[in-house]
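Board notes (copied after class):
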Amino acid sequence: ESVTDRVGVFRLDKLPPGPHLLELGPSDTEPAIVVRNADNDADNGSAVKAGADRTGYPLQWWPSAGDVDYAQPVTVPAGGVLAFPDIRILRQSLHEVKGSLKVEGCEIADKYHLSFGQSYGGSYFRRVSATLVCGASFSITNLPTGRWVLAADGGSPARQEYAYQEIVVTDQDLEVELRL
């Protein structure tokens, strides 16, 4: 991980030679998750309000695009220095995925782990995660367009369940129902 200076210059030290994926973006527009439990419909105040300006500088894969499926590795030579050209991250519309976990026969004490991220090849890049109780809903904000993965697992010690769903965010918010 590297942070830019005030004019945007960054340095990546001690990278082993070989292919690397370079991800760029500010931390203040990373995806965020808000959980609403069945008995408490109030969120924690971090959800994006309807009609709000939802634009920002999302995480991007360089030198390609925001979608990890199109990411191209940058090859670091052995013992060499890799110079980058000026890199521009453009402001984009950011979207929201609202959803709920549907678990037949779950108990209020059952807990589920929700994970939201991107997959590339055999790798999974988790962006946000949360623990939900039976009947909870969720909202994931600050999402650029692209392919995403929503996964949940958990339940009671006697009954563990798992669900996985691919989601494509295009030019609008989405509503999903994840069934375990």
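Comment from the instructor: The chain is about 0% helix and 45% strand. Confidence is low (pLDDT under 50) at residues 41-52.
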